[in-house]
């Protein structure tokens, strides 16, 4: 997992994205992206720790997609749209890493397990899984 986090942080550095993290942040502090500043606030203490690679990739996805910040007063469907694009772009980035390791996932479940993708994002993982094979054809 540390190698993957290092790979994601190197991706950020190579693409002008700043990742700020603090060891004193509580485990419950959710990471966030500020796309207009190309800045990610990444919590290295997030629990469960198995979700950390996906969480960082998700925030990178927001930067890549230049998603506007979500505000609590927005309609749920608007917020879900931006979260879904962050998920899909982030999962695609994780799949890019998996190719560097010669990993092949036979099911969306295996993909989710390997990268700590929560069950609530299953639809996005299934989309990315299908999309991966469409690109390979």
Features:
Arc Repressor Mutant, subunit A; 55% helix; 137 residues; mainly alpha; 5 helices
Give your account of this protein's structure:
The protein has 5 helices and 3 strands; from the N terminus they run αβββαααα. The chain has a single domain (2-136), classed as Arc Repressor Mutant, subunit A. Helices cover 55% and strands 7% of the residues. The chain has 137 residues and is mostly helical. Residues 71-82 have low confidence and may be disordered. The chain has helices at residues 2-14, 52-65, 76-100, 108-115, 122-136; strands spanning 18-20, 32-34, 39-41. The longest helix has 25 residues, at 76-100. It starts with a helix and ends with a helix. It is globular. A 3-stranded mixed sheet has the order 1-3-2, with helices on one face.
Tell me about the largest β-sheet. Answer: 3 strands, mixed
Spell the H/E element sequence: HEEEHHHH
CATH class: Mainly Alpha
SSE class? mainly alpha
The third-level CATH topology is Arc Repressor Mutant, subunit A
Quaternary state of the chains: single chain
Q: Which strand-content bin applies to the residues?
A: 5-15%
Rounded to an integer in angstroms, the radius of gyration calculated over CA atoms is: 14 Å
The CATH level-2 architecture is identified as Orthogonal Bundle
End-to-end C-alpha gap: 29 Å
Query: What is the share of helical residues?
Result: 40-55%
Count of distinct structural domains: 1
List low-confidence stretches: 71-82
The total strand number stands at 3
Average per-residue pLDDT, rounded, comes to 85
Shape: globular
Number of helices: 5
Arrangement of strands in the largest sheet:
1-3-2
């Amino acid at each position: 997992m540390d190698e993957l986090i290092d790979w994601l942080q190197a991706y950020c550095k190579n693409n002008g994205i700043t990742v700020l993290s603090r060891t004193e942040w509580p485990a419950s502090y959710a990471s966030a992206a500020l796309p207009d500043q190309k800045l990610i606030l990444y919590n290295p203490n997030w629990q469960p720790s198995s979700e950390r690679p996906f969480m960082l990739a998700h925030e990178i996805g927001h930067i890549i997609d230049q998603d506007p910040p979500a505000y609590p007063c927005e309609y749920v469907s608007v917020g879900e749209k931006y979260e879904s694009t962050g998920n899909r772009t982030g999962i695609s980035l994780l799949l890019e890493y998996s190719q560097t390791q010669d990993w092949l996932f036979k099911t969306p479940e295996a993909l989710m397990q390997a990268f700590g993708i929560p069950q609530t994002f299953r639809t996005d993982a299934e989309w990315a899984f299908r999309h991966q094979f469409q690109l390979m054809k």
